[in-house]
Amino acid sequence: MKPINYALLWIGESFIYIIILIILYLLVPEVTVYSFISNYTGVIQGDNWDKYYFLALCILAMCFNAALIFFSALLCKRKSIKRHS
Prior knowledge:
mainly alpha, 3 helices, 89% helix
């Protein structure tokens, strides 16, 4: 593959990651998650909460992004195998 193709793939993957992160921010409200977790752990300091909430959303978005890329690559590979058979 040409270097420009690799650069475009990287930009596309980053864009998908950002979209997934935005969707998670919309679907997982901070207040709801805080009240759910604070029921089990008690009061959480604001600095710790902000750090770990953002970290959890970033890791979750990264996992969703990796799974999406993996399954789309798997699907493309299966289609190319069927064409060559």
